[in-house]
Design a protein that fits this description.
The chain has 16 helices and 16 strands. The protein has a six-stranded mixed β-sheet with strand order 5-4-6-7-1-8, sandwiched between helices. Helix 12 crosses helix 13. 38% of the residues are buried.
Length: 495
């Protein structure tokens, strides 16, 4: 399967009509909920909604095109324009039949339908405008985006209520993954703050009737009383990975994770988790010294972002408490990265100088390889860094206890200040620490000569990694010793 990345984002929202305005609004605690202005709510018990503000379509797109679109389509086209600009894509240089659109809307152009229905009742069918149907049907957001930017590939519209936007992005992802497209413009759009839209949800008793805009949308509060109608659009540009790399685009997010479960778990406990994809080096180098340099360079870029007030990670990273984690070759690479971080030059050639010296305090090696790279022909020796290695008893890729070679090459200058621990997991194999590798080492043909009945489940294996990592990081980076003895006395915590 092909890999997919996000290269652009666009937004039209109640708190800002661009991604930057939206983000600044979030940081400032801006509330987009206010009294409904789109129609007279005198006879309505619901008075609040989250309306898009200060949006003038003719100022953001061709006037004639805007007149032929319902607001939900206008929002989608404008958000798509921002996302494409951010991506750096020049669609004139792309194969238009490999550029697709997956943009959905839950209800489409309700405004136009209500207005023309009123004409029908008051003035007769001859006064209904001929463009009513092309303006109101839900697939016109996707269609108008495709027309506006010359996308002639797959064009689809997903309608799954509140899941529409997410569903649309998922379908776009699958389209690229399966080779149906190289680029997909994807997302959701809505503009249903209309007399009928609000009346319908009010009759359903789904909308809050509070007039306090600061207390209107509180879904997890015991005082919650319903949801708030909103409108706007969110669009992303998805690209096949190699296509994005060849085009030198800025990749905003990577869809291929594998360790997202671990990242989400550690993030929920206060850690900033960054996954660096180094698999591109598999075919081009395969050497862990290159991986180590790439990781250190990424740390530098991450720390720059920590100082950028315009970014969501601003000030969120404690630069004095950094840990590295790696799996398989990555488990060996983190030791090399720590070594390079301490050095002023490449061990094999002093002409290549280093100037990293980050505050790396802890290393977690998961089923690591060993000695694929030997600094100046010697084994990698580490000093004064906390070290945790996890190894599976049923690892059919890395030899059992191989990771202990690096574990034995960790030394400390004083007692009590550091910790090194080796966790040997009965029934664990190599690939199940990564959610994307499952079939690599338990599927055919490997399962034909492996006794997979002895393996623990992937879920259990990943749970062990989550808990061990958290306990280790809490002790190493936060000096929290609550469960630290788990790292030296596992039997104490046996079920």
């Amino acid at each position: 399967m092909r890999r997919v990345v996000v290269t652009g984002m666009g937004a039209i929202t109640p708190i800002g009509n661009s991604v930057d305005e939206f983000w600044q609004g979030i940081k400032a605690g801006k509330v987009g909920i206010d009294e409904i202005t789109k129609f007279d709510t005198t006879d309505y018990s619901v008075k609040l909604a989250a309306e898009v503000k200060d949006f003038v379509a003719k100022e953001r797109m061709e006037f004639k095109a805007a007149k032929r679109m319902s607001p939900f389509s206008q929002y989608a086209v404008c958000a798509a324009k921002e996302a494409l600009e951010q991506s750096g894509l020049d669609l004139t240089k792309e194969d238009p039949y490999k550029v697709g659109v997956s943009v959905g809307s839950g209800v489409g152009g309700m405004k136009d339908m209500e207005e023309e229905n009123k004409k029908l009742l008051e003035k007769g069918p001859g006064r209904v405008k001929p463009l009513l149907v092309p303006m109101m049907i839900t697939n016109m957001a996707a269609g108008n985006v495709a027309i506006a930017f010359g996308a002639k590939g797959k064009c689809i519209n997903v309608v799954t209520a509140c899941a529409t936007g997410t569903h649309s992005i998922g379908e776009a992802y699958r389209s690229i993954q399966c080779g149906e497209a190289d680029v997909m413009i994807a997302g959701g759009t809505e503009s249903s703050i209309t007399p009928l839209g609000v009346a319908g949800f009010t009759s359903l008793t789904a909308l809050t009737k509070t007039t306090d805009k600061t207390q209107a949308s509180i879904p997890f509060d015991k005082k919650r009383s319903g949801f708030v109608m909103g409108e706007g659009a969110g669009i992303v540009v998805l690209e096949e990975l190699e296509h994005a790399l060849d085009s030198n685009h800025s990749i905003t997010a990577e869809s291929y994770l594998g360790y997202d479960y671990l990242g989400e778990y550690l993030a929920s406990h206060g850690y900033v988790f960054v996954s660096v994809d180094e698999n591109i080096l598999n075919e081009r180098s395969g050497e862990n010294d290159a991986r180590a340099v790439l990781l250190l360079e990424n740390i530098g870029e991450i720390l720059k972002k920590n100082k950028d007030e315009s970014l969501p990670v601003y000030g969120k990273i404690d630069e004095n408490h950094i840990a590295l984690m790696g799996h398989s070759r990555g488990g060996e690479m983190i030791a090399d990265a720590y070594l390079f971080n301490e050095y002023d030059a490449y061990p094999g050639n002093g002409m290549f100088t280093f100037d990293y010296h980050y505050s790396i305090q802890a290393l977690i090696a998961v089923a690591p390889s060993v000695n694929q790279y030997l600094p100046a022909g010697h084994e990698t020796e580490l000093s004064d860094v906390d070290y945790l290695v996890l190894q599976g008893a049923n690892d059919q890729d890395i030899s059992v206890f191989l990771g202990n070679e690096q574990y034995e090459n960790v030394s400390f200058s004083k007692d009590g200040a550091y910790i090194a621990s080796s966790l040997y997991i009965a029934g664990a194999n190599h690939g199940q620490f990564n959610t994307e590798w499952g079939g690599y080492d338990i599927g055919r043909p490997f399962s034909l000569w492996l006794n997979v009945k002895n393996f623990i489940t992937a879920e259990d294996q990943q749970e062990i990694l989550k808990i061990a990592s958290l306990v280790f990081l809490d002790k190493s980076l936060k000096e929290n010793n609550t469960y630290a003895d788990f790292l030296t006395d596992y039997a104490k915590y046996a079920a």
